[in-house]
């Protein structure tokens, strides 16, 4: 079986999207499926021929040209560029299935090419484009661009031969837009439990490198977007430091809010207590987790965070770390309060402080939380079990094709 994946971006760019992509590709290949990979123009300029990444060669799409800079024609230009490149790659590789991943522009290009070549199309919705646009500041809810993005997502979901998504929140929303009788398959975010193994020993060399004292360390790992709620975490630090003067906050990653967060830390006089590491290679994260006692994910409540499950908390749970997260819908799907982690009221800095003080004051609670979180990942959120769910979806599409 030959599957051609159409993607927004991939490594060497770093993001949760890229991590999920590589995990899917590796596991599909382990199942004996042949994968082909194409990224769209948003990957940016790449030097061709592109080097294989973890054994995967990526076909790339050239920038869409001057038309893509014009607001009205931007989407059409991007879809056209992806479709032209996809048609060339599909004729070259002869896939059995086109598997387009968010956003909808990839699905629209795949539908154009798939209908022309007679190849079925799977659309995987990782987040709704309109919600991401609101958070990134490129659209406001209710604006013309918001409604256009929403309409394109709905159109793609209705026209695709099969639809998959990453969590139950998105599945319920998709069923309101598409044909409920056809169904939507959830392929949940997962982790490689063999790669992320619990390590009870603190990496002292790394702790010295990061200037971490022997006291407790809390941290966040991920992209610095506004919806992640890192502003709330900074606001909580003064109260936390009054109770635990040696406490350190480790912020691992980067993104649009990094400059603002650094400035806010200075305003709160937290320069010596908050450590920014910058973006780190995915392979280095196993060491980072050993120096963080409690991973904090304080996402704000909004449509995006209610519907979408993040990947990073699962990595922390696999690593055997204590996880504290806001009670948005995406977190509630994978964290059982008091058993696999702890939840607090989203957007409430006092609730965040109280939850952290309770955990810091009761280290005897940590090991049961760690053990339960690790067990959950091993039994329910491994990439092997998650990616296996594609099998029936693909098989059904191929069987339908043979019946025609």
Structure, described:
There is one protein chain. With 404 residues, this protein is of the alpha/beta class. The chain is 45% helix and 15% strand. It has helices at 16-30, 74-93, 104-117, 129-136, 144-159, 168-177, 204-209, 230-243, 258-267, 285-290, 303-307, 312-318, 329-332, 349-360, 366-380, 383-387, 390-403, and strands spanning 2-7, 34-39, 58-59, 97-101, 121-125, 162-165, 185-186, 217-223, 248-254, 274-278, 294-297, 322-326, 342-344. The strands form 2 sheets. The chain has a 7-stranded parallel beta sheet, with helices on both faces. Helix 6 (168-177) links the parallel strand 6 and strand 7. The longest helix has 20 residues, at 74-93. It starts with a strand and ends with a helix.
Summarize the structure.
The chain has 404 residues and is of the alpha/beta class.
């Amino acid at each position: 079986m030959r599957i051609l994946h159409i993607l927004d971006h991939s490594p060497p760019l770093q993001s949760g999207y890229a991590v999920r992509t590589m995990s899917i590709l590796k596991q599909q290949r382990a199942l004996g499926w042949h994968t082909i990979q194409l990224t769209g123009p948003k990957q940016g300029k790449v030097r061709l021929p592109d080097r294989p990444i973890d054994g995967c060669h990526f076909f790339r799409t050239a920038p869409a040209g001057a038309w893509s800079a014009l607001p009205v024609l931007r989407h059409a230009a991007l879809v056209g560029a992806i479709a032209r490149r996809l048609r060339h790659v599909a004729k070259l590789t002869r896939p059995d299935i086109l598997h387009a991943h968010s956003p909808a522009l990839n699905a629209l290009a795949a539908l154009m090419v798939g209908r022309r070549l007679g190849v079925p199309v799977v659309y995987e919705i990782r987040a709704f484009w309109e919600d991401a646009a609101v958070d990134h500041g490129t659209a406001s809810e209710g604006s013309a661009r918001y409604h256009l993005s929403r309409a394109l997502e709905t159109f793609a979901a209705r026209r695709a031969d099969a639809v998959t998504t990453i969590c139950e929140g998105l599945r319920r929303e998709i069923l309101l837009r598409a044909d409920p009788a056809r169904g939507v398959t959830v392929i949940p975010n997962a982790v490689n439990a063999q790669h992320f193994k619990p390590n009870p020993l603190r990496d002292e060399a790394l702790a010295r490198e990061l200037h971490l004292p022997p006291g407790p360390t809390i941290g966040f790992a991920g992209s610095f977007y506004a919806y992640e709620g890192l502003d709330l975490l900074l606001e909580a630090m003064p109260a936390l430091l009054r109770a635990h003067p040696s406490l350190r906050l480790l912020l691992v990653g980067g993104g649009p809010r990094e400059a603002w967060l650094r400035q806010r830390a200075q305003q709160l006089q937290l320069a010596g207590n908050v450590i920014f590491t910058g973006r780190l290679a995915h392979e280095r994260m196993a060491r980072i987790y050993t120096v963080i006692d409690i991973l904090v994910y304080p996402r704000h409540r909004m449509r995006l965070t209610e519907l979408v499950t993040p990947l990073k908390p699962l990595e922390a749970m696999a690593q055997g770390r204590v996880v504290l997260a806001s009670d948005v819908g995406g977190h509630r799907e994978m964290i059982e309060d008091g058993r696999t982690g702890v939840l607090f009221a989203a957007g409430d800095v006092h609730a965040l402080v109280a939850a952290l003080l309770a955990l810091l004051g009761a280290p005897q609670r940590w090991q049961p939380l760690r053990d339960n979180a690790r067990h959950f990942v091993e039994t329910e959120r491994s990439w092997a079990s998650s990616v296996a769910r594609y099998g029936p979806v693909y098989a059904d599409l191929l069987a339908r094709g043979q019946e025609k």
